[in-house]
Amino acid sequence: MSKKAYRPDVDAPEWKGRYVPYDIIKEGAIALLVVSILTIALAVIFSSPDEKAITIKTWSNADPIDFAQTAFSELNGTSGVAGYGAPYNSGGPAQGWGFLSPEKWVGVHININTATDFVLNPLLAQPEQPALTTALTQWKSASSATQTTWSNAYSNADPKMTFSGGVVKVPTNSAGPVPVLINDLTMMARSGALDQALVTQNGFYTTNYTKPLLFLSDGSYLESVAVKQHLGGDQWGMMNETGSWPGQAWLWLYTFWYQIQPWSTSASGDFLVWGTMMILTALLVLVPFIPGLRSIPRRLKIYRIIWREHYAEQER
Length: 316
Hints:
The protein is mainly alpha-helical. Helix content is about 50%, strand content about 0%. The protein has a two-stranded antiparallel sheet.
């Protein structure tokens, strides 16, 4: 029976040298002490902002005009979410690379109609108000052409929108019920009722924040806050967790890819970043099974640095 061939990237030779005692408790305690001191020192020097979570109430009170203009874009279907496509709607092309398009394969499975889900349904949940009830009835009973005419009239006056005395004012008399709908939704948002209405549409348990987050993403307020904290898409900032929720620090590798081409300029950038991370994760998991790759530590001889005292003694 022939002797099995030695494989240097798989088999480890039997150690026949002497053994040196190693106090892992002592080494671990020293490492813990050093890391603790560094953590406390760096936290004192640099700290980390502990910002409160941004809600629709926060947004609408800080910038009511931006909120009202965003709400109108949700109503007339011109917002980013309205034209995003799968998995939210059919308003835009699905992201993909070549024939790979998981969004298209899965399809629309978080169905969101921005006009209905972000504007009309929350207003319908409001207590009875004659003017609002009339406006909702008027909008729902109108034809698509009539709704478009109202929306165009409101859109033309939109740049001159003002906010005073708690009321959104738009200089037009041809927009039908649109001014009432947008103004009432703004007041609802400023009271905090819209936040609750958006998370309770899917059931009793209020843990699904998809709709309020998507609504926030369509406005410019969230982006302006992010840019001030150096967290914009073209910035490299990273913020520690706020409150009791998981933080973003572990996402640094995701945000890295958005800074370089082709990820930064592709219309399917989200898909490309996700695909890149899945490939890198698979490589990390499969390192012990990939010939050549698993031999890198052995060939780099990093172990000689770790056990340098032992090898120095052997050489002597």
